[in-house]
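Researcher: Please generate the 3D structure of the following complex. Treat every line as part of one assembly.
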Amino acid sequence: MIGAEQRLSRMGAFGTAALCLALAVIPFLTTTTSLRQASQIIVSVLAVLGVNVATGYGGMISLGHGVFVGVGAFATGYYVDDLSMPWLLAIALGAVTAGISGALVGLPALRIKGIHLALVTLGLAIVFRPLSKRFPSITGGVSGRSIDARFDAPGWWPGDSRMASSVYRYVFCVLVVLLALWATWNVVNSRFGRSMRALRDNDTAAAVYGIDLVSARVTTFAISAGLTGLCGALQVALVPFVSQDKFPAQESLVIYASAVVGGLGTIWGSVLGVIARTVVGKVGDLVAGFDGLGPVGEFFDLLDDSAFVFGLGLIVLTFLFPGGLAGIGRKDRLRK
Amino acid sequence: MTWNFDILPDFIFNGLSLGAIYGTVALALVLIFKATTLINFATGELAMLGAFLVYVLHMEQGLWLWLSMALAMMISAGLGVLIERSLTRPFDPADHLPVVLITLGLFLIINAVAGDIWNYQVRILSNPFGKFPSWVPSVGGDRFIEVFGSRLKYQSIGIWVTLAFALFVLGLILNRTKAGLAFRAVSSNVESARLVGVHTGRTLGFGWAIASAFGTLGAVLVAPQLGGVNPNMMATILIYALAGAALGGLDSLGGAVLGGILVGLIQAVLVTWGGVVVFGQLYMSILQLAAAFLIILIVLLFRPSGLFGTRRVERV
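Model: Done. Output below.
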């Protein structure tokens, strides 16, 4: 058993090293467009991490985290443009705003559990888009609004080309995501993190042992929503445009699915979930390239549709790895 | 603020007929939830697929509409059994995470497949209750009769009669057949049912079959009100049906139907008619969606068992 675990940690070390290498090399190899896309993928780790905190550690199913991405994005756009705040402050406040909205959503979660909470949060995800159309001064209504401020490289950053700014944004996003992963790891392994997990496993027993159920649940949801809102805030920094049509209910489902596929209850699961989602998407693009295969080609046409590929991948991955990708090789440890 | 009581019956009739459809779809949700405590988020998409089957059989192949509906309901039932056997049975229903994912995956797949085959434009499906059949004595016109100075559409009457008949058949199946007895046993207590020799898997498949058939019925009935069939037709209907199921109690079959009808009435009278009274104009979609969401939230917060569901006692 010890051997297996050592092998696993060696695998983990290799994975981490490969990931760091990839992150360091990417800016030297690409164009501004693909660097932006890479940054967007990296930023989406935060949204998945948010779901992981609420569902994986807090035991509260949320099918509505796309809402917090939206709140973070709209709030950041509002702060940076209408209130002309500096970007760093706007991003931080955007995440805080999402966190406060998360605390409000967390209040019903005090009483509503399990599949019922899934129902409520799904309802929230569906209502959010038409609702945000009703506040055009902040959200830009149906067509969205572009943000005038640009998140450009400051004077001390080497180079002042468009590429230099792209690299600056990329490095900023990577650092923020790493910082958030580290901070979350610390939170879930603190005293508060243990009370979170106790509530997940048996909330009645945890309350009997003196854990304040109300404050723990609300704080968990606020942290979770804050992380997810940070994702939305950074999205605005990357692409200065906010619009309600970026936040359909499906987006929330995709975030939730990535969290579960990656593995709930482990920090690295969130990273793995985003990697899996990206790989499934790329495979879909690749397969869609084949043409002229007769009746088989008909099926490949279907693979053009990213929703189809994602749905199929979701079911296959759920069957193969019920504990998520991060749960591979840990089966016997979990069984006990 | 003007109280337009003269148009109120119109809204009530409309609410009652939409509500009956929500009730039908809510029934599909509850039939699966009752036995497995699993909310099938793909209910709406399965129903949409059923409506498209009717479209293919009736509009493209030229079969009689009612025969196509019966065939489509049978095919959906078969599909429901297949999904239960292959996709949900391997998982422990008490663990919500994987099963929620499976039904979400199904949701995406069915929607994409339908979009690929029929693309996303609205296709007209003939209305089973467009005009009174010739043997009905004409009362006010061929599409409606006058009640309280308002038009009671033949379509509404048709929906109510169909739903009443479907409920009657469902009652017979559940109360008078062996499979129905097994279903009631499994939904009241899985372990005990298994101990007395009920094949639980097969029984759950039976529940999925009836649920899918009911979903298809609901989708066919709602299609004329949406202008026809299209792959996204059930997205909002599903939310109203979920609200209805939550209101009636997620494990009560009669509650689902009544809950759906209540949601339809709330939507038509409180939101739409109330909107006309207060603002003097129609505020449709967003207020209705918000009302459905509020119903779900309030019911689950203050009375999770709904109006007719069983209350649960939690033990450590």
